Automatic annotation (TrEMBL):
Residues 1-35 form the signal peptide. Keywords: Signal. It comes from Luedemannella flava. InterPro entries: CBM2_carb-bd_dom_sf (IPR012291), Ig-like_fold (IPR013783). This is Fibronectin type-III domain-containing protein.
Length: 235
């Protein structure tokens, strides 16, 4: 009987160990570690300004049993982050370390991409030691050297309106720019006539000889497009 009892106890210990190992294996298989890719880009900074904006992009490549991801980085003394809906950043007391947690209402889904903007104030220096969920994140500084597209379909129209007289209006198709258009410069016979912010009709001096109208677009970073031109025959 003693021998049988010892065997039973030994067998029980073996079964218990097997159960633990099986459970661990099941957990490992049933709850795989999720993966995400993340990057942080510093958006082009306006000349002469202090402060910039970070664009944070996180993409999950597996369904993830989590509803949040965490961004961390260090900033120089005196720097701060500005309030931004979606990813509030908090400074760790006594340090220059900032932490922000994005929270979703449902678990992350594979292929879902989150893009959040974080404005940084008071400095021009880049953040350091950037991580997303504890993993080093790719960091880049973006610049804007791309000019806007050329204003198309520049047309000058001369007409006479009752009670107003004869005048000329100018219009063109809107330009586009990767970081946002600022406006247009309108030239008449090679001389700057006016700077405008839209491609709406504008009144220009009525031509008395063959007149050349030229329009070029510009963005907020000082990039200019080529000219779109139109020659108004007279008479």
């Amino acid at each position: 009987m003693l021998m049988n009892g010892s065997r039973l106890r030994a067998r029980g210990r073996i079964l218990a160990l097997a159960t633990v190992l099986a459970t661990a294996t099941t957990l490992a298989i049933g709850s795989p570690a999720y993966a995400s890719t993340g990057s942080v880009s510093r958006l082009p900074q306006l000349p002469g300004t202090i402060g910039y904006t970070l664009r944070v992009t996180v993409t999950y490549d597996h369904n993830a049993p989590t509803t949040e991801w965490r961004l961390e980085f260090d900033l120089p003394p005196g720097a701060g982050t500005l309030n931004w809906t979606g990813l509030p950043m908090f400074k760790t007391p006594g340090t220059n370390h900032w932490v922000g947690t994005y929270r979703s209402t449902s678990p992350m889904v594979a292929g879902t991409t989150f893009t959040i903007h974080v404005p940084i104030g008071a400095v021009t220096a880049d953040p350091t030691n950037c991580t997303i969920d504890g993993n080093p994140c790719a960091y880049s500084v973006l610049t804007d050297t791309q000019p806007p597209t050329v204003p198309a379909d520049v047309i000058a129209r001369r007409a006479t309106w009752p009670g107003v007289g004869t005048g000329t209006t100018l219009k063109w198709s809107a330009s586009t720019d990767d970081w946002g258009l600022s406006g247009y410069e309108v030239y008449i016979n090679g001389t700057l006539y006016r700077t405008v912010t839209s491609n709406a009709l504008i009144s220009v001096p009525n031509a008395t000889v063959t007149t050349t109208y030229a329009v070029r677009a510009f963005d907020k970073f000082g990039n200019y497009s080529a000219f779109g031109t139109y020659v108004l025959p007279y008479p």
